[in-house]
Design a protein that fits this description.
Radius of gyration: 27 Å
Structural class: alpha/beta
Shape: globular
């Protein structure tokens, strides 16, 4: 039988058969590479601060869809808390979670992102100054002067920290004289100037030191952290409100080489995860701190408002500290000038625009107020 198919037709049929075979063949997935970054926090695993570090990592990991994974270790897993910056710089760790004040020993100006009254700015305003008022460029300038090849993100406005936990409550500055006290950053200078004998211990070492009598009093941060760390087990009095750390925030660090090696997509995910984690942290802090504050009261902890005379003494002490440090360190003065200019403008706006929320709270909840 004669084949009447032309060469062109045979070629088309063969091509169609090959195409059909290709369509029926299983698709072979290309393996995806995951970049894993090893982080360490400066907090014990049980502290809510370590939880915040994991919250940030989880946001990155979720949005990166397997392309990037951040693993967070607790304080001391690789290096002690106060050695985090060097470890990230050297690449011993790919990144970390802490506070800028922990690097205070390398340049006193670093403590200005947390220590002191920040010219009346609250913690969210300090973050506004950092991100929009020139603070970020100044922090980068300090790290560059220290030869620290790191990428720093600040986030998470912390509530005002207590003046401290005391075995006996104090009512005036004179009673602080000789008290063995724990704090960090430029708050060390403030409490020292006010008469205390200061020991800047990491968070995980505070309670054992109080228990053994190596400390008479200490401050850490907030109702949740203080409860988890064990303050109510060894001390029964807490003085609320203070200017020693009224505007602090957290720091997320990356080794610059590791960070720069990431594609633009993953860098953007990190950037937006920082912003998301900042908001989430501030909401979680309100929820958890308020619950733990009530629970601590139920446990018999006595809370006292720090007397105005002591708060004014803090401001007077701070004025002496910044004048001295500003004269010794040009970067210190440069940062102070930047903060002050921003605070004068933003503070005027906030103080004029924000209503007195305490008035509304007292209307509904103060003793003798009308019930709704």
């Amino acid at each position: 039988m004669t084949d009447h198919k032309t060469p062109r037709r045979r070629s088309l049929l063969k091509g169609a058969a090959l195409a059909a075979g290709a369509m029926s063949a299983p698709m072979v997935a290309t393996a995806q590479t995951t970049t894993t970054l090893r982080f360490q926090s400066t907090w014990p695993a049980k502290d809510i601060f370590h939880e915040y570090a994991n919250d940030f990592a989880n946001k990155v990991n979720s949005m990166a869809s397997g392309k990037l994974k951040i693993e967070v270790l607790p304080s001391g897993a690789v290096v002690p808390a106060f050695q985090l910056l060097e470890a990230v710089n050297k690449g011993t760790l790919d990144g970390g979670h802490g506070v800028v004040a922990y690097h205070y020993g390398k340049n006193t100006a670093l403590a200005l992102w947390g220590s002191g009254p920040a010219f009346g700015m609250d913690p969210n305003m300090v973050l506004a100054w950092h991100n929009y008022g020139g603070g970020k460029a100044l922090l980068d300038e300090i790290y560059k002067s220290l030869n620290m090849d790191v990428v720093s993100y600040l986030y998470g406005p912390m509530p005002t920290q207590p003046f401290g936990w005391f075995k006996k409550p104090i009512s005036n500055v004179a009673q602080l004289k000789g008290v063995k006290f724990r704090t960090v950053g430029l708050a060390v200078d403030m409490y020292t100037d006010m008469g205390a004998a200061v020991n800047p211990l990491p968070g995980g070492e505070i309670i054992p030191a109080l228990d053994r009598g190596l400390l008479d009093a200490a401050e850490f941060n907030n109702a949740t952290s203080d409860r988890i760390l064990g303050f109510p087990d060894v001390v029964k009095n807490c003085m609320l409100q203070s200017f020693h750390q009224s505007g602090e925030q957290f720091e997320i660090l990356f080794n610059k080489g590791k960070f720069n090696s990431l594609p633009a997509e993953l860098k953007a995910i990190i950037d937006y995860s920082v912003q998301a984690a900042s908001a989430d942290m501030s909401w979680k802090a309100i929820d958890r701190n308020s619950k733990d504050y009530i629970d601590l009261k139920k446990q018999g902890i006595k809370f006292y408002k720090t007397p105005d005379a002591i708060l004014k003494a803090q401001l007077a002490s701070w004025d002496k500290i910044i004048e001295k440090k500003g004269g010794e360190n040009p970067l210190f003065k440069k940062i102070l000038d930047s903060q002050k200019a921003y605070a004068e403008r933003a503070g005027q706006w906030q103080n004029d625009y924000m209503v007195d929320f305490k008035m509304a709270y007292n209307h509904y909840f103060a003793k003798g107020a009308k019930k709704a």
